[in-house]
Design goal:
With 445 residues, this protein is of the alpha/beta class. Helices cover 51% and strands 15% of the residues. Helix 19 crosses helix 20. The N and C termini lie far apart (43 Å). The site of manganese (II) ion has 4 residues, from loops. One of its GO terms (molecular function) is oxidoreductase activity, acting on the CH-OH group of donors, NAD or NADP as acceptor.
Length: 445
């Protein structure tokens, strides 16, 4: 079985390869093709994979290429994990937004819109090529903003593209652990959009255990989301939000913290990763050791500013390696071997949330089997959550429309309609600021 990874020179590819190395089952991946635009990055990551494979019998073969069509031909699965504009682009997304006093996070608010506007045209081109060159392939999209990009690709690939994120999985796991429940035994009632969802229940053998957590301040304050949002706010909501809702519920604090920080997340990662890729060009570099050290530092500093504003302290050791590669592998196995399982994924709504149309990509628990991912019924969202979901989906639709038409006015509308952008004038200036720094937005006229 052939797995093609787009963005194959990306830093987190060794996590995926590590998961593949642990898979001894029949029908496993035997061939991995890494595609990237940058041959140096491919070389760097291939070195790490080579060290990972040392001593593992029948390790999946690894090939690298900068030819996209060659990479796609004959693929059974395609992982898409690209970053249009690189980490320099991410840092610019943050900088331009913060200068206007609004959030520039890569998936939330103005930053997510800017990143979406330059990523969607590239993702659509990839989707079109896949439907021509590998029409039977399953596409697993990791590329952020993951919900929006999955929806863009689904217009060409239908339900053969599935978006993934490890945040809801991590959230479910943390709640289960706090309640002393094995995550495998728990049914998690979670729904929303990517990075915009809420856990409203956690059922074990039919009984909802979440009220027990919400009623116990000590338990509630003991895990990441409890510390981030505070016990009282979670009790008021009667639900546990995805960590990315911190950017909405504590927006001023998050914006201020990023404005004050020495470096934004994007700038920190740009510099950290540049050091890693430079080091990998040295013939004597200890590839796997250096990669692992860099990974540990990246994970330990994840959402550090948000945690600081909340006084949440350091991350729990158990929360460090997020596990998105495990979600991807579980998804791939369920499809390839018809190993039925339930996973929280980004798929087309198909009537799950009655306030959204059938083709809107949402994040929801799905039953996965050889026929793909099928969204499961969940409780309806309360009004405040429905409001946010509808507002953000409307923004995503403007981004998709702008990408399809090349209309700058539509792009401005996307910025202006976002709940975290507080003035049409700000939206206009964001558009100016972003087009000045991003060549990838030159198509907007
Ligand atoms: C979480 C999010 C992902 C994001 C990742 C890395 O897992 O769900 O969407 O890509 O964190 O974040 P970082 O800030 O390290 O790039
Ligand atoms: Mn994510």
């Amino acid at each position: 079985m052939k797995l093609t990874i787009l963005g194959g020179g990306g830093f987190r590819v060794p996590l995926v390869y590590g998961a593949l190395l642990g898979d001894r089952g029949e029908g496993r991946v035997t061939e991995v093709v890494l595609h990237d635009l940058d041959a140096d990055r491919l070389y760097a990551i291939a070195r790490v994979l080579n060290e990972q494979a040392a001593g593992v019998p029948d390790a999946p073969a690894v090939a690298t290429t900068t030819d996209l069509d060659e990479a796609l031909r004959g693929a059974d699965f395609v992982f898409s994990a690209i970053r249009v504009g690189g980490l320099e682009g991410r840092a610019n997304d943050e900088r331009v937004a913060l200068a206007e006093g609004v959030l520039g996070q890569e998936t939330v608010g103005a930053g997510g819109i800017a990143y979406g506007l330059r990523t969607v045209p590239v993702a659509v081109d990839i989707a079109r090529r896949i439907s021509r060159l590998a029409p039977d392939a399953w596409v697993i999209n990791f590329t952020n903003p993951a919900g929006l990009v999955t929806e863009a690709m689904s217009r060409h690939l239908g339900d053969r593209v599935i978006g993934i994120c490890d945040s809801p999985v991590g959230l479910g796991r943390r709640i289960a652990r706090t309640l002393g429940v094995h995550p495998k035994d728990a049914w998690i009632d979670y729904v929303g959009l990517n990075h915009l969802g809420w856990v409203r229940g956690l059922r074990v053998a039919g009984r909802d255990e979440l009220p027990r957590l919400l009623a116990d301040p000590d338990l509630l304050g003991s895990f990441e989301e409890g510390k981030l949002f505070g016990v009282e706010w979670l009790q008021s909501l009667g639900a546990v939000p995805n960590e990315y809702l911190h950017y909405y519920y504590f927006n001023r604090e998050a914006v201020r913290a990023y404005q004050k920080a020495d470096k934004t997340r994007g700038a920190f990662l740009r510099d950290q990763q540049a050091r890693f890729y430079d080091e990998m060009q040295r013939p004597d570099a200890a590839a796997l050791t250096v990669w692992d050290r860099t990974r540990a530092e990246r994970e330990a500093t994840y959402m550090a500013e948000n945690r600081e504003t909340a006084g949440a302290g350091e991350r729990d050791a158990d929360d460090l390696s997020g596990g998105y590669e495990k979600v991807a592998l579980a998804l791939m196995r369920a499809i390839a071997r018809d190993e039925r399982t339930t996973l929280i994924l980004n798929v087309r709504n198909q009537g799950t949330l009655s306030v959204l149309d059938t083709d809107a990509v949402i994040e929801v628990p799905c039953l996965v089997d050889a026929n793909g991912a099928h969204p499961l019924a969940v409780a309806p969202l309360p009004g405040h959550a429905t409001g946010l979901v509808c507002a953000v989906k409307a923004v995503e639709r403007e981004v998709l429309a702008a990408a399809a038409s090349g209309s700058r006015a539509t792009a401005v509308k996307a910025f202006a309609l976002h709940p975290l952008v507080d003035s049409v004038n700000v939206a206009r200036r964001l558009m100016e600021g972003y087009t000045a720094v991003h060549p990838g937005l030159a198509y907007l006229a």
